[in-house]
TrEMBL record:
Family (UniProt): Belongs to the TatB family.
GO MF assignments: protein transmembrane transporter activity
Membrane topology label: Single-pass membrane protein
Major location (coarse): membrane
One Gene Ontology cellular component annotation held by this UniProt entry: TAT protein transport complex
Record note on quaternary structure: The Tat system comprises two distinct complexes: a TatABC complex, containing multiple copies of TatA, TatB and TatC subunits, and a separate TatA complex, containing only TatA subunits. Substrates initially bind to the TatABC complex, which probably triggers association of the separate TatA complex to form the active translocon.
Protein's name according to its UniProt entry: Sec-independent protein translocase protein TatB
Keyword Phosphoprotein in annotation: no
Keywords per UniProt: Cell inner membrane, Cell membrane, Membrane, Protein transport, Translocation, Transmembrane, Transmembrane helix, Transport
Domain of life, per lineage: Bacteria
Physiological role: Part of the twin-arginine translocation (Tat) system that transports large folded proteins containing a characteristic twin-arginine motif in their signal peptide across membranes. Together with TatC, TatB is part of a receptor directly interacting with Tat signal peptides. TatB may form an oligomeric binding site that transiently accommodates folded Tat precursor proteins before their translocation.
NCBIfam families (alphabetical): tatB
Keyword Cell membrane listed: yes
Amino acid sequence: MIDLGISKLALIGVVALVVIGPEKLPRVARTVGALLGKAQRYVAEVKAEVNRTIELEELKRMKEAVEKTARDVETQVSSTAAEFEREWSEVTAGLEGQSSSSASTSYDDLASIGAPVYPEYRRPKKNFRLKRQAVPQWYKARAGVRTRALSGAARVARYRPKTPLR
């Protein structure tokens, strides 16, 4: 870039003082400073825009790479699943003709080899708290069910006997 030393800056200052004059020199210096600031901001904005464009291109390339990898994984999984289904149908083809009594013995066989045997599903019992919340609020009020707890001080203040007026 331009090599400006102290001696060159002093020479430019002396020439500007002679040409412009001492009255107008401060105003011209402010104007030149403002223009230089605007130019620096413009250059910084252009650099930021170029950087954003470069990052956007990198992100697009990364997106394409991830999509390609996802497609490859999807095709691999679908082919593996199809192969598994084919092998499973071959293995289970002979088991479809067996009776239900032999099916119960197969569970015993599974338990004997250490395979997990899951218990039969049982419907859960009703939850008392949920059942209690299902009672309507008007019924609780009529039956005298307490819905809010009072602190000791609040209870004393509420149930304190009223003093007669004099």
